[in-house]
Amino acid sequence: MAQENNDKIRLGISSCLLGNQVRYNGGHQRDPYLTDTLSRFFDFVPVCPEVECGLPVPREAMRLVGDPEAPRLVTVTSRIDLSEQMNRWARRRVRELEDEEICGFIFKSKSPSSGMERVKVYDHNNVPRAVGVGLFARIFKEHFPLLPTEEEGRLHDMGLRENFIESVFVYRRWRALLAAPSPGKLVAFHSEHKMLLRAHSEKLYRQLGKIVAEAGSQDLPTLLERYQAPLMAAMRLKPTVKKHLNVLLHIVGHFKKLLSSDEKKELLELIERYGEQHLPLIVPITLINHYVRKYKEPYLQRQYYLHPHPLELKLRNHA
Ligand code: SF4
Asked: 116-126 pLDDT, tens per residue?
């Protein structure tokens, strides 16, 4: 497996989530999971669209109004339309963020500027519907369509949290490949992510395999371009217990000749108990990793599925 870069990964983040007092009322929205746990593994690049586009703290509250596909950002009482000011700044800011080398972004939910989805949009009768996207979040997602994004509230769901962080690590490795690409490195990337991709989407894994099969005979920049969208699309799909079971049994297949009958029996029992959701995924994975080390199985040693993110984040510890 390629040497992992141990530098902290950079993530963009809505500034108020770090405890910065930038909200319209002078407060913050500090999220302890982000500031106390994730900060040990990631460097944050804070962004507050409303302050950075020139608005003061405190300021009048604002909301989205009009067409949910192209809403206006308007102050609640004085009805000042801030859309142009915000959009102009946002288009410039996303270009600046290209230099920050971020591998994901954590947005503050429900904000008319930063909310990623289900932001209230008010119609002309002042009736809200939670169908909008914050103005900055919309421009950000159009500019960085491949970048993993998530909202702070959804990160309290263990499955969504694991999916987001796994995607961030995959994105970082993909960017490292793009920095010095070769057909061989693309083949190795695909091979090392085989189990991980299959846990997300068997269909997209196969589609990606067909693209990689052309490495060496087709133009490399075109192949990389074709590979990255389905790669990140696969990562957005949540693994299920059933998909994990398929991968785990596939892994057992690699051990068939190496494991003693007792070892194989014990591993299959743990996998079965995971399938019944009596054990978290980390239990069979830990035993597999033990056997991978014991038998030095070269193919499995290279699989990111067996160590997709730091163990200390405890992302696979839930049943
Ligand atoms: S939600 Fe966004 S715009 Fe509002 S205070 Fe937080 S970072 Fe600033």
From this structure: 999 999 999 99
